[in-house]
Amino acid sequence: MSSTTECIGRTASNRIALEEQLEAVHGYLQQLAMATKTHGILVTRHRADHYTASLSSSVPFGVTLEVDL
Fold this sequence. Notes:
- The structure is a single chain.
- The relative contact order is 0.28.
- It contains one helix and four strands.
- The protein has one domain (about 5-60).
- The chain has one helix at about 15-35; strands at about 5-10, 40-45, 50-55, 65-69.
């Protein structure tokens, strides 16, 4: 069983805006992950214009895993 914390959702009307938002969220989550060094980052695409990103104990520290639903 995995645990997740700090789940952040992002939706954008165009690809450039979405990429910029995801980059900012990823940087923020990297900083949080560095505090404990126990969680990696899980980025989930729910639709072409909507993603969530979170820290996850099921992802090794230092790894970012991207999945599509």
